[in-house]
Write a structure and sequence with these properties.
mainly alpha, 65% helix
């Protein structure tokens, strides 16, 4: 059971209701994470704004989902593993094998593998990556904007991993657990 209450949309703070309505319009549902973060309209707006901005960036949805899986596994966030496995399978149409590889920060695609390895290094080294890490990423074909976006996608996912790990958010997707 969640350690921070998860209100229904109707029980949510008034200022969060339009934001939650926008989430429902986009996804068709309002995940428990959004309802929980909606306790703070400022936090919900901040999360949705950063997520929306990154959706307009250079990294495609499939790579962002793979990074989310890498980071959720690293942080042991079962809620995010469950959500991003569902999104990976049903939205970006990844295979089970691709999801399993992403959780281990691997991919059969060389460029994607470089991005996932870099994302893992950003998380595991708390941003203190080596010059060699950046060189490897650039040699794989990533430009400066994409490097910045990878770091931001890592940070966004660390944020959701942490709130879910603190709250022990009730999982409202098919459950996937960290290894």
């Amino acid at each position: 059971m969640s350690r921070i209450s998860i209100p229904t949309v109707e029980q949510s703070v008034e200022a969060s209701k339009p934001l939650l309505a926008a989430v429902k319009q986009q996804l068709g549902i309002v995940p428990n994470l959004m309802k929980l973060v909606g306790h703070s309209p400022a936090a919900l707006e901040g999360y949705l704004s950063l997520n929306g901005a990154l959706n307009k960036g250079k990294l495609d949805a499939a790579l962002r989902e793979r990074i989310a899986l890498t980071i959720a596994e690293f942080n042991g966030c079962n809620y995010c593993l469950s959500a991003h496995t569902y999104l990976g399978l049903n939205v970006v149409k990844m295979t089970e094998a691709e999801i399993a590889a992403a959780r281990d920060h691997h991919s059969s695609d060389t460029k994607t593998a470089a991005a996932l390895h870099f994302a893992f290094r950003v998380a595991s080294e708390r941003g203190r990556v080596s010059d060699a890490d950046l060189v490897t990423l650039r040699q794989a074909g990533f430009d400066e904007a994409e490097v910045v976006e990878i770091v931001m996608v890592v940070a966004l996912n660390v944020l959701t991993n942490y709130i879910n790990n603190v709250a022990q958010t009730d999982i409202d997707f098919p459950v996937v657990s960290a290894k």
